Amino acid sequence: MSDKSVKAGVLFAIAAYSMWGVAPMYFKLIAQIPAAEILVHRIVWSVLVLVMLVLAAGHINKVRDALGNKRVLQVLLISGLLLAGNWWLFIWAVNNDHLLDASLGYYINPLLNVFLGRIFLGEKLRPLQQFAVVMAIVGVSILIFSYGQVPWIALILAGSFGVYGLLRKQVAVDSLPGLLIESCMMLPFAIIYWFLYASDASNMFTNDWSLNLILIGAGIVTTAPLLCFTAAARRIMYSTLGFFQYIGPSIMFVLAVFLYAEPLSDARLITFAFVWLALAIFSADSLHAYRMNKRQISQGQ
After folding, report:
1. Backbone angles phi, psi at 267, to 5 degrees
2. What CA–CA distance (Å, rounded) separates 92 from 30?
3. Which of 43, 111, 112, 34 has its CA nearest to residue 81?
């Protein structure tokens, strides 16, 4: 993989996680609407956005090729369901004052990426990476066994998105066509729910124009970071991708504590401390490995 491609992957990763970090501010604007209905709007409007992007980029042939591959469609159906479930839980957590739990989940995710990369992609773990994963497990275990609190929101968010990224990295389809197909697979479910179960808050004929614009904006707010994420996942190592994920949860943590005043209990703070320490170790090790690799490449030229 070329150095230019890796640099592009790094920029895509930074953009994706930064946008995810500020996304809760958007969902707070429509907190009065149930999470399932926000998810419906996210699916419907993102399909329209993605169709325009695919046509503009001239990727319709890639969509056609993917549709002709049974294995690709099977993987995208699973990844689409995982993505929908992940976003529903994230939206629900944000609008029910569990942003700190969401933040913890996305702090855990990069360490889970390392573990998944080792198990399914054969990416080797250096000793400090192994230690970082163990530190994160210890932090979560302390919360569970000492305080009787299972951070289920954090664990489900981390697990579902970790597996989603793993699937998208292995499937032979570009980010934009793949995301369009995923969204189109979810579209029938979204439309059925909208017409049969949605509340009056989703009736765009009776809403004021400002609320409708915010709802339509769900297509952009959720599509842009996903496009950047899948583009990054195809350009850099999966374990390296996790190096940048601290950006998103750090923004979420600051928003939760200082803007939305969510309570930060001692038990939760201890878990955060272990995960932060694990990420610090992981980051330092990754930076050292990157510098060593760059030095070896320069010496070999």
Report:
1. -60, -45
2. 11
3. 43
Give me the amino acid identity at 257.
Answer: V
Are the C-beta atoms of residues 126 and 288 closer than 8 Å to each other? no
C-alpha triplet 85, 44, 37: angle, nearest 5°: 55
Angle between helices 70-95 and 99-120 in degrees, nearest 10: 150
Q: Which residue has the tokens 């070896």?
A: 296
**DSSP tag of 68:** T
pLDDT at residue 238, rounded to an integer: 63
How many residues appear in the chain? Answer: 301
107-116 per-residue burial string, b: 16 or more CB within 10 A, e: under 16: bbbbbbbbbb
Give the count of beta carbons closer than 10 Å to the beta carbon of residue 78.
16
Query: If you average pLDDT over every residue of the chain, what do you get?
Result: 88
Residues 263-282: pLDDT tens digits? 998 888 999 999 999 888 88
pTM reported for the whole predicted model: 0.86
Tokens 């839980």 belong to residue: 89
For 99-149, the DSSP string reads HHHHHHHHHHHHHHHHHHHHHHS-PPPPHHHHHHHHHHHHHHHHHHHHH--
**Greatest distance between any 2 Cα atoms in the chain:** 67
Spell out a b/e string for 1-34, using b for 16 or more CB atoms within 10 Å of the CB, else e: eeeeeeeebbebbebbbbbbbebbebbeebeebb
Structure confidence at residue 187 as a pLDDT band (50, 70, 90): very high
Number of Cβ within 10 Å of residue 262's Cβ equals 17
